[in-house]
Amino acid sequence: MSNKWHQFNLPDTIRIQSTPGKGRECIATQTIPANTTLLTVLPYVTGIFDNNKKRLCAVCVCTHPTKCFSLHCASCDQVYFCSAACRDAYTQDHRDSGCCDILRKLASLKKVDRHCKSVAKLVVMIYWQRRTRPDPLVDALESHYDHWPADVKLDWHRVRQFLWQQFRAADWLRPDETDTDIMHLASKIESNSFGLYLERRADVVAGRALYLPASMFNHDCDNNCEVEQWTEEDLEDEQVSIPSHDLGHPTDPPQPMATMYPSVFTQPRGKNRQMFIKTTRDVQANEPLTISYIDTQLPVATRRQLLAQDYYFACTCLRCAMESATLAKSKKQKSKKK
Questions:
Q1: What sequence ranges are listed for the domain SET (predicted)?
Q2: Which of 110, 54, 114 lies closest to 78 in space, CA to CA?
Q3: Measured between alpha carbons, how far is residue 118 from residues 51, 133, 209 in Å?
Q4: Which of 1, 33, 61, 180 could form a Cys-Cys staple with 273, CB 3.0–4.6 A?
Q5: What is the pTM assigned to this prediction?
Q6: pLDDT, tens digit, for every residue of 245-289?
């Protein structure tokens, strides 16, 4: 492994190399059996969408089973907690940091869509966190900002100016940093963050998280690894069952019971959304370790379009090449019949 990657504390089963046309990629150093856990990673930062901020705990990242949490940060009112322990942990970390002030102003920023705000929230958290817990992997991530279309850069202009002004006022910037550096970080987050989903609702994205070591894995439409998030503990003792309707006449049939959960739990419910990266099949030594960035059940043209649009690369994996060749051959045969 190159010396510059030693600091990232990857397991001995993984090495990182730079490959022409692919950039940085993870490579298996030995044969790895299927269903092997390669990495267990905690998020470096999380950013919860505004419309779900009361549903997800800002510290342990658990989801409220039925409604909303009531404990929140009194300074910014932008983050909510499942328990007093999570609230106290967050308050201790963010005391006198200026983070709350920026988050509150960001929430009220007008004419900015949800996507930009969610990325901007992670930018704020990274700038705040690097003051005491910097991670060199953030700098190692790849930015595509220079390749953003002009209209996309224009959409970000308001957020760019806001973050630049706020970070300067908070004295969070390094001596040589510019507003362009802030946008390069925004691009890194766009291309490398993972979605946070509501428990039992895998179709609802509730926020974003940056899992730094996991961001080193490249995409393949025939991936040999998969990612899985550990969501929360099943704390049955916190449930309270109540009649869903009035009992009515004593001779009436028994009524079903409705399960309710408190708005404040006695202890943290979450596992901080630990991410596990596991092999889905046997992997040979020197084989690239890959995950999927998109739904690989989509047609090849759609997959390539999404990857180019969201991740700024043209997928040339073996599966895409084979499916494209098959489609081209089929179209050629159809044209001959006409």
A1: 12-294
A2: 54
A3: 11, 21, 10
A4: 61
A5: 0.83
A6: 544 555 555 555 556 677 878 777 777 888 999 999 999 999 999
